[in-house]
Each structure stands twice: as structure tokens, then as C-alpha cells.
Amino acid sequence: MNVELREVHDSDLPVFYRQMNDPEALWMAAFTPKDPADRDAFDAHWKRIRSSAGVLHRTVLADGDVVGHAAVYGEPDEREVTYWVDRAYWGRGVATAALRVLLIQAPERPLYARAAADNAGSLRVLEKCGFRLTARERGFANARGEEIDEVVLTLEG
After folding, report:
1. I need a surface site. Which of 11, 15, 42, 118 has the fewest CB within 10 A?
2. Nearest to 15 by CA among 44, 46, 53
3. CA–CA gap between residue 4 and residue 2 (Å, rounded)
4. How far apart are CA 112 and CA 134, in angstroms?
5. Whole-prediction pTM value?
């Protein structure tokens, strides 16, 4: 499967919105918007991040199909990666390939990532890309309606 990143197009947003409303994916991601079904909030969020100079945001393509998005955001020395891949593509190496490309496009280090401690798939992706566990925290997970364990991973130089 050929995985590529490109700039986000307006036509990608309905795909992202559908993906962000998959109950199983929401549960796994855990740290999500309060109401993923709030289309106005979704649109406002995307308008804000697409106009922010400090965000590197990309659409993930697999064999030419829009299957998710990946980003680097945050203040210098606190930059964080995030990604979302359609559940139909989980376990197929898409997230790992997309993150590897994103890390080339965003060469600054260190970079950080956060994940629910029980999100084994995302932890595998991050570790394959060189991130290492550096902290454990607890945070409120909107998708689960409770405080859960979260891990912080770091990618150094």
C-alpha cells in the first residue's frame, strides 16, 4: 500500500468528520472533543488549525484514498504529534508509514506524543517511529467519560 501525506483540502473535512464519529475509534483515541458530532465545533476547530502558522497538518492518503490526518503542533520545544487513521486501515501499517513521513517533514526535535495507556496500536506505531515512553499521567477522556491513564512519549534528536 502506498501511503502519502499532502496538504489538507476542503474536500477532506467530511471524511475526517465521519472518521471522528466512529464509536470504536473514539473509544480507542479516548482524548477527543467533548461532542464529536457537533459539526459547528468541528468546522471551527479545523478553520482555526488550518489558519495557524504553527501547525503542520497533513491528509493521509493510502493508495490515493483519504484515510486520515496527521499533524505536528505546539510551542517550540513542546511540539507534539497527533494522527488519526480510519479504523478500516488499522493494523495495515498506514499510521506507521504516515507518521514516518510526517517526521521527515517536521525535523525539529524533541517531539512528543500522548496516548491512552491502553491504546496498544498507537503505542506500537509511536515506538516503531522511535518514540520512547517518558511519563505517565492521568487525564479526563471525553470519549470514555472518565479519567484514565495516559502516557507521554518522546522522540529525541
Report:
1. 11
2. 46
3. 7
4. 9
5. 0.96
